Amino acid sequence: MTFAPGDTVRARTVDVAGHTRLPGYARGARGVVVEVAGAHPLADDRARGLDVPAQPVYHVRFAARELFGEGDHSVVVELWHDHLEGPA
Amino acid sequence: MSRVNDVGGAIGFPAVVEEPDEPRFHHDWEAHVVALNGALIRRGVYNLDEFRDAQERLPVEQFRSSGYYERWFAAIGTLLVEKGVCAPGELAP
Amino acid sequence: MSADHASSTISAEVRHLEALLEARGLLDPGEIDTRIDEFAAGGTPANGARVVARAWTDDGFRARLLADANAALPEVGLSMAGGLQEQRLKVVANSADEHHVLVCTLCSCYPIALLGPSPSWYKSEAYRSRVVRDPRSVLAEFGVELPADTRISVWDASAESRYLVLPRRPEGTADLTEEALAGLVTRKGLIGTALV
Q1: Engineering a disulfide at C62: which of C25, C55, C112, C168 sits with its beta carbon 3.0 to 4.6 angstroms away?
Q2: CA-CA distance, C27 to C21, in Å (whole number)?
Q3: What pTM value is reported for the model?
Q4: Nearest to B56 among A15, A19, A48 (CB)
Q5: Burial grade of C57 (CB within 10 A; 0-12, 13-18, 19 or more)
Q6: Radius of gyration, alpha carbons of chain A
């Protein structure tokens, strides 16, 4: 299944030891999908030289308060499908 | 834990300093490093994600005390050795 | 070690490595110089300024740019195809309600093929760490004061997309030519750390 604009998602909390493009400040945070932004092989895997298929990437908007406990702005992060899970 | 490059939201850094009329590159060798990296990626010696990973795997002290393009060059050297293109001793003149 | 001494040392190391790789057939003679010249001739902030000026004067182009920037760029003679791979360009438009600012917290991703190299401040830990947490303070340091009810959206270039801010057209510019309008647009305006 693919996430759609408007879906609430949560960034995974897994703290991988290797290269990842999921910024630490967004780990475990709840956000809203703004748009599907294309499809690419997971950078975390490509960094290990793996040849993996493309998966959807999304622009996900996070409220600053959700990320940092304060602030009235939002941060939009481009995340791979594997970085996200449904809100439950 | 997050790697040394993952600084989004980190506390304690100072005000942003802007260099007036900054040149595209401060030294010719920097332009060479950018061109070299592009040439090696285009040839498939390594990919862009491996290149970023190699920078992030530099020892923290080296990462923190190196300039931006110095880190690029160090990562290129790391990958050339790991991919068997160069022997470690061959990198120095 | 002084900065100049360090620089001449690494310069020698780079030359040494280029010669080694050329001897191994991994670089063609003259390839590095050719790439450097191509890179210098390619990306420049003037490209971004041209895109903005067209968007300010042509509502249809503006709409196409915001919907699919990669498809719209050729209308002004530009493309995202100059780099290692064609990246998706996302153009985000400032308005009275919303101001956008761009960053790559994990490294320094930037639309280099279109705009040339990013400024050093964009690559700095000071900018990358602080702009996601407190963009209003960082913008104030750049001299940008926004009304309290203007929402700020920070875009973190964490994956393959690259971004361009479409600044608001300044007041009192109705009589300017497209070329003159392009002259108003700064590199900081395209990143969001200036109003234009």
Answers
A1: C55
A2: 6
A3: 0.97
A4: A19
A5: middle
A6: 13
Compute and round to an integer the Cα radius of gyration of chain C: 19
Q: Backbone phi, then psi, for B42, in 5-degree steps? A: -60, -35
pLDDT of residue C81: 84
* Angstroms from B91 CA to nearest CA on chain A: 23
Confidence (pLDDT) at B1: 58
Contact between B53 and A15 using a beta-carbon 8 Å cutoff: no
Q: Which of B3, B49, B79 to mutate to test the interface with A (most CBs of A within 10 A)?
A: B49
| Residue to test with chain B: of A15, A25, A48, A51, most B Cβ within 10 A | A25
What confidence category does residue A15 fall into, taking pLDDT thresholds of 50, 70 and 90?
confident
Q: A47 with B53: CB under 8 angstroms? A: yes
d(CA C14, CA B39): 14
Fold of A8-85: SH3 type barrels. (2.30.30)
CA-CA distances (angstroms) from residue C136 to A33, C62, C93, C185? 24, 27, 18, 21
Give me the pLDDT at residue C60, please.
98
pLDDT tops 70 at residue A55: yes
The count of CB pairs under 8 A between chains B and C is: 128
User: What CATH number does the domain located at C43-191 have?
Assistant: 3.90.330.10
Q: Where do the structural domains in chain C lie, given as residue ranges?
A: 3-40, 43-191
Q: In degrees, to the nearest 5, what angle opens at C-alpha B27 toward C-alphas B87 and C124?
A: 90
Contact criterion met (CB below 8 Å) for C71 and C89: no
pLDDT at C2 over 70: no
Instruction: Tokens for C6, please give them.
Output: 């360090």
Q: Look at residue C1 in the predicted model and tell me its pLDDT.
A: 56
Residue B27 CA: distances (Å) to CA of B71, C14, C92:
15, 12, 33
Buried b / exposed e over A50-75, threshold 16 CB at 10 Å, is eeeeeebbbbbbbbbebbbeebebbb
Say how far apart CA C43 and CA B69 lie, in whole Å.
19
- Would the ipTM clear 0.90, i.e. be above it? yes
pLDDT mean for each 10 residues of chain B (93 residues): 91 95 95 97 96 97 96 98 95 88
